[in-house]
């Protein structure tokens, strides 16, 4: 019995380490407006320029928000993250269209 205990402990430790490493989830990357409200990802790819020549017009600013709390649902708020991706972190986005959403790769890898 002692012999099997010496083999089992390192095997369990190696398995646990492999599972923890493999299960590392991507953090969220969402396109948001200047108020931290989630908008469609396609807006983050547009040039940031005013669409109106009216005096006092303030253009919308769309940029990616990395990590933090919130979700991918349009119109929801985000917080606790950053507008700058952290080195060594992995981020993912949701692509909308077709028959649903899909989780994809983002920046920061």
Describe the structure.
The protein is an alpha+beta fold. The protein has one domain (25-105). It is built from 1 helix and 4 strands, in the order αββββ. The chain has one helix spanning 2-22, and strands at residues 27-32, 63-66, 91-97, 100-105. A 4-stranded mixed beta sheet has the order 2-1-3-4, with no helix packed on it. The longest helix is centred in the first third of the chain and has 21 residues, at 2-22. The chain is elongated and about 75 Å long.
Distance from N terminus to C terminus (CA atoms, Å) equals: 46 Å
Count the beta strands: 4
User: What's the tally of helices?
Assistant: 1
**How confident overall, as mean pLDDT?**
74
Low-confidence stretches: 17-22, 98-109
Please identify the structural class as seen in this structure.
Answer: alpha+beta
Number of domains: 1
Strand content: 15-25%
List SSEs in N-to-C order: HEEEE
Portion of residues within helices: 10-25%
What is the makeup of the main sheet? 4 strands, mixed
Cα radius of gyration in angstroms: 21 Å
Shape: elongated
Strand order of the largest sheet: 2-1-3-4
Question: What are the key terms here?
Answer:
4-stranded mixed beta sheet, single chain, 109 residues, alpha+beta, elongated
In short:
The chain is of the alpha+beta class and 109 residues long.
Secondary structure elements and pairings:
Blueprint: H1 2-22, E1 27-32, E2 63-66, E3 91-97, E4 100-105
Parallel strand pairs: 1-3
Antiparallel strand pairs: 1-2, 3-4
